Every structure is written in C-alpha cells, then in structure tokens.
Amino acid sequence: MLIFWSWVFLLLGMVTALAITVDVSKRPQPMAIMNVTWPITGLYMPIFGWWAYRRMGRAPTKSEQAKQAQHAREGHGHHHHGGEIPKWQSVFVSATHCGGGCTLGDVVTAPIATATGFALLGSAVLGHFVLAFIGAYLFGVLFQYLPIRAMSDASPGAALRDAIKADTLSLIAFQFGMYVWMLIALYGWLGEMNAFTAPFWFMMQIAMLIGFVTSYPANWVLINRGIKHGM
C-alpha cells in the first residue's frame, strides 16, 4: 500500500507542478525566480499548491501586462485600492521562496548520496542530511541572491551578504522540520535512505511540507525585523 500511495501523491505533485509551469509560462512572475519557485511548490504541495499559486501568486497574462505598461506610459494607469497584502500571505509566499531553494537542493543531492553511498562518521543517514543541507543552502542563497541583484543596485558582495542573512534562519528551520520527519519515516517505514524508490520521495514530499511549516515562523521573524522583505 505504501508504494501505491507513494505513486499517487508523487504523480499528483508532478501534475500540480506541470499545471503551474504551463500557467506561469503565460503569466510570467514579476520576480523571475518565482517562475521556478511556484512549480517546485506544486511538487511537495499536490493540488493545494495550485490553489496557493492561484490565490497568492498568479500574475496577469503577457498581453495584460503589456496593456498595463502602455497605460502607465500614457499616464492612464488605474490604481486599485484593495488594501495591502495580508501579512500571513506575504509570509507564506516568502516561505515558498525559501522552500523552493531548499527543495531543489534536496532533490539534487539525495540521488548523489544514494548512488555514491556517501556516509559521515559511518552513517549514511548523516551523509544524506549533510549533503542535503549543503545543496539546500547553496540553492537557497542563490534564490535570494538573484532577485536582490535584479531589483537593487547592490554590489555582488553586498547582495551575497544580504542573501545569506535573509536565508540562513529560514533554511535551517526548513531543513530541521524535514530531518525530523525523515528520521521518523526511516525507522517507521523506509528502513533505508534509498533515493531511487517511490516511498523515499513520498516521505520527502511530506518532509518538505513539514519543512515549509517549520520555516513559516522563521520567515515571519525575518520579515518583522526587516532582514527579509515580504513578498
């Protein structure tokens, strides 16, 4: 049964990610990195990820964006006074941004750890976790660095420092939630960290969702303190 439900939820995640990808191609995000982040979110949030994207991330179509830009140039821009974005929503999107980099790092490093039998202190589990953290940190900082460079005149060094400050706490919180669940899954159902099996990725899917939840308070604190900008 575990294999059956693993494939069900993995396929739902892939379908959700594909649906978001297709929609994003027609409605590119103002912040380019979110064109990658939203589909990744769909991978570990099957179905719900589509709702979250539609509710909080969907942008106008390319033609609508062109019309808005033209109206703005002509001085006929329309201002909608719908109020500011709710705080919970801003933090949610920021958490998906963090989750996108973490998830990508985990997806890249898990097969490497399994294929190489990488271990630390004689532990394959510790080897998996350390490689996952390194990959998640590199991609996470990159996901922060690129928009900082694109949206400001900060130097590469300053942008990198800001990216590290903005991502470190939320990344640690995300990975912590993920590790706790994977340890539970390892001794409860999996038996080994084998990245070439469907149950492993089903457990990772759940782990990433839990990581998102544990990173949410960290993103709230970072935004409140002005270390990270709400989205």
UniProtKB/TrEMBL annotation:
Family matches, as InterPro entries: DUF4396
Short name of one Pfam family: DUF4396
Source superkingdom: Bacteria
Transmembrane segments: 6-24, 36-53, 125-148, 169-190, 202-223
Record region (Disordered): 63-82
Keyword Cytoplasm found: no
Domain DUF4396: 88-228
Keyword Metal-binding: no
UniProt KW keywords: Membrane, Transmembrane, Transmembrane helix
Name by which UniProt lists this protein: DUF4396 domain-containing protein
